[in-house]
Every structure is written in structure tokens, then in C-alpha cells.
Specification:
The chain has about 300 residues and is mainly alpha-helical. The chain has a single domain, classed as Vanadium-containing Chloroperoxidase, domain 1. The protein is about 60% helix and about 10% strand. It has eleven helices and two strands; from the N terminus they run αααααααααααββ. The protein has a two-stranded antiparallel ribbon. α6 runs antiparallel to α7 and α9 packs antiparallel against α10. The longest helix is centred in the middle third of the chain and has 30 residues. The radius of gyration is 28 Å and the shape is elongated. The termini are far apart. The N terminus is likely disordered.
Length: about 300
């Protein structure tokens, strides 16, 4: 009997599933961001539609771009009526050949600035964040930048300001230049808008996250974005007022995007940045750059 009873018990044990097999598997807790509030059902469509709209307007530029210019800055008799500020800065910064600064502005705005900003953001997140937090950071930067370039595109098509190099061409040659659909899209600078939106959004995110690399992101991002704008003037693609407006709009969109997504209690401080440099040697020159930085403040 004992053997029979033991056999029944052993058989039951062998047939019964192990206790751990029935134990519910603990699912990982959903990620909750401590700095930003967001809804992927809203943010992702904004980025997708915004990016799609920008691409579509670039493809349809020959049909959408104003022809002729709406802001031509010439009198009825054909006399030049360009304002003195834009004329003076153009005379000071315009290069003898526009191709090199034009290519460099493309590399700086669409290659170097995004690479440096995203790279530093990833590095900062690697040391002080997580993979999911890094994706939220990227979401904030992308949304701010896409909205900034969309606004820029809308204004450029509406305003129709003649580009500097076109403005000074003989009337008969204006329609003969390569990419003539771009002739009247000077205001305001898209390269500068994008570069400043990238730099300021990456800097704002880093400051609100209290990343140790936040000052470095600001210190590299703002000069790179400024260089993009200066190269656009040097390439004779934009006037100074086009670039200054791009700086203002890109910076505003770059700061406001992450700022408006911050959770209650998150704050940041704006502080002045003064950086000086001096070259050695008998003909050394010194320079000073003044700007604003943003640093997170613990609630």
C-alpha cells in the first residue's frame, strides 16, 4: 500500500506542472518620463505630417514659389531700393565666389550641426539617462525642428523676397539661373532656422534634464548655427535680415518646444555666456562672443 501510495504521489508530481510555470511573469513597468510630458499619438503625427509637408513643398517648389518676386526692393524706374543695413552687411561678407560658401552652408546646416547636436545628446544621455529617455529627447528635438522649418517654408512662399544674387542680375538673366524656382525665397533663411532650432532644442532638453554636458551642447551648437547663417550671407543667398530672422524664429521654436512639454516643477535658468579667445604671436587677435545659455534648475 505504501508503495502504491508513493507511486500515486510521484505520478501526480510528475504530471502536475511545476509551480513556477504557473507563476505570472512580471511585465516591465511602463516608462514614465520624469521631465517631459508627451503623447506619441499626438507627437508622432505632428512630426510625420510636418516632415511630409516640407518634403512635398520642396518637390512642388517650381509650382508653389512666387514668380516674379513680391518684395523686389526696386523702384518703378528699376532703381535699387535695398535698405542700407542689408546692403552694408552684404558688401562686407559676400565672397567673390558663392559656390564654396554655399556648399559649406549646406554641410554645416544639414550635416555638421545635426551630427554634433545628436551625437552630444546621445553621449549625455548615455552617461545620465536611458535608451527610452534618449528617444524622448530625440522626439523633443525633432518636433521643434520640423515645426520650425515648416513655419519657415510657409513664410518664404508667402513673402516672396528676391535673393541677393538675383537682385543684382540683369532682368533678362534672372530666369536663366539654375534653380530659378528658388529665386524669390530669400526671407527668411531656412538653413539658419533649422540650425538654430536644432542647437537650441538640443540645448534646452539637456538643460532641463540637468545633463552635465548641457553647457558643451550650447557652447558648440550656437557657434555652428551662427556659422550656417554667416555662410548663407557669404554665398549671397540671403541678406542679413533674412539670417537674423531665421536665428530668432529657430531659437524661439527650439526653446519653446521642449519648454512647453516640461512637467510641472521643471524649470531652467537663462544665463549670459561670454567666451573670449586670443591668438598668439605678434599679430595675434582677440575676440569675444556674447550669448545666452540655458541651465536647468532643480525644482
Amino acid at each position: 500500500m505504501r508503495a502504491f501510495g508513493l507511486s500515486v504521489v510521484l505520478g501526480a508530481c510528475l504530471l502536475a506542472p511545476p509551480a513556477w510555470a504557473d507563476a505570472p511573469t512580471a511585465s516591465p513597468a511602463p516608462y514614465v518620463d520624469t521631465t517631459f510630458r508627451y503623447d506619441l499619438r499626438i507627437e508622432l503625427p505632428i512630426i510625420g505630417v510636418g516632415l511630409g509637408a516640407w518634403i512635398a513643398t520642396e518637390i512642388a517648389k517650381p509650382q508653389l514659389a512666387p514668380q516674379p518676386c513680391r518684395i523686389c526692393e526696386r523702384g518703378a524706374d528699376g532703381s535699387d531700393q535695398l535698405n542700407g543695413f542689408d546692403a552694408g552687411v552684404r558688401s562686407l561678407l559676400r565672397a567673390s565666389g558663392s559656390q564654396v560658401p554655399g556648399r559649406l552652408s549646406d554641410v554645416t546646416a544639414f550635416g555638421l550641426t545635426p551630427a554634433v547636436m545628436v551625437g552630444l545628446s546621445v553621449l549625455a544621455n548615455y552617461y545620465q539617462g536611458s535608451a527610452k529617455q534618449g528617444l524622448v529627447d530625440l522626439l523633443m528635438v525633432m518636433e521643434s525642428t520640423v515645426l520650425a522649418v515648416d513655419l519657415n517654408q510657409l513664410v518664404k512662399f508667402a513673402v516672396g523676397r528676391e535673393r541677393p544674387f538675383v537682385h543684382f542680375l540683369p532682368e533678362a538673366e534672372k530666369t536663366q539661373v539654375a534653380g530659378a524656382a528658388d529665386n524669390n525665397l530669400s526671407f527668411f533663411s531656412g538653413h539658419t532656422t533649422m540650425a538654430f532650432a536644432l542647437a537650441t532644442s538640443a540645448g534646452t532638453v539637456a538643460s532641463l534634464r540637468h545633463y552635465r554636458l548641457a553647457p558643451l551642447i550650447w557652447a558648440l551648437g550656437m557657434p555652428l548655427a551662427t556659422l550656417s547663417g554667416l555662410l548663407r550671407i557669404s554665398a549671397d543667398k540671403h541678406y542679413a535680415t533674412d539670417v537674423l530672422t531665421g536665428m530668432a524664429v529657430g531659437s524661439a521654436m527650439g526653446v519653446l518646444g521642449p519648454w512647453l512639454h516640461r512637467k510641472q516643477g521643471q524649470s531652467a535658468a537663462v544665463y549670459p555666456m561670454v567666451m573670449s579667445s586670443r591668438q598668439s604671436g605678434p599679430y595675434g587677435q582677440s575676440g569675444v562672443m556674447v550669448g545666452l545659455g540655458l541651465q536647468g534648475v532643480a525644482p
